Amino acid sequence: MKKIFVVMTLALALPFYAYADNKAPWEGTFKPFKGEYEIYGGSLQEQKAPGRNDSKVAFSVEGSAAKGMFDAMQPDEKRKCTDAAGYRERRKGNVTCTYQPHSGYNCNFGFDLRTGKSISGASC
């Protein structure tokens, strides 16, 4: 009797399980994005010309790519760079994403080109 109960339960649950995951398959493809970059030496606050032993790159990504990054980086920061109305900020490691009603989404990150290590791409 127990075997029949287990089999019937599985038979009834299987169609619901199959229907629940009816999403389109994920397409892991590269997409174009809007952004800018800057190669520099020194620090973000005190930039100088890049040199052989001091070269960094900062990236600024905007639009749908920045929105996707912002959405993936929950929650919003409690300590923000500004208290402007509608301003939102999210940070994970050296990646900072913001939303401002007048300009939309923006994300910043960078790399030390000598070491390959991740560095911040923005400062308050």
What is the fold's blueprint, element by element?
Elements: H1 2-20, E1 34-42, E2 47-48, E3 56-62, H2 63-72, E4 88-92, E5 95-100, E6 104-112, E7 118-119
Antiparallel strand pairs: 1-2, 1-3, 3-6, 4-5, 5-6, 6-7
> How many separate domains?
1
Radius of gyration of CA atoms, rounded to a whole number: 23 Å
Name the overall outline: globular
Q: Please identify the oligomeric state.
A: single chain
β-strand number: 7
Distance between the termini: 68 Å
Could you give the order of the helices and strands? Answer: HEEEHEEEE
Uncertain spans, ≥5 residues at pLDDT below 50?
A: 1-18
Alpha-beta content class: alpha+beta
Percent helix: 10-25%
Mean of pLDDT: 85
**Percent of residues in beta strands:** 25-35%
Question: What profile does the largest beta sheet have?
Answer: 7 strands, antiparallel
Number of helices: 2
Q: Explain this structure to me?
A:
The model is unreliable at about 1-20 (pLDDT under 50). By secondary structure, the chain is of the alpha+beta class. The chain has one domain (about 25-120). Strands 1, 2, 3, 4, 5, 6 and 7 form a seven-stranded antiparallel sheet that branches. It has helices at about 1-20, 65-70, and strands at about 35-40, 45-50, 55-60, 90, 95-100, 105-110, 120. The chain is globular and about 55 Å long.
Give a brief outline of the structure:
This protein is an alpha+beta fold and 124 residues long. The protein has helices spanning 2-20, 63-72, and strands at residues 34-42, 47-48, 56-62, 88-92, 95-100, 104-112, 118-119.
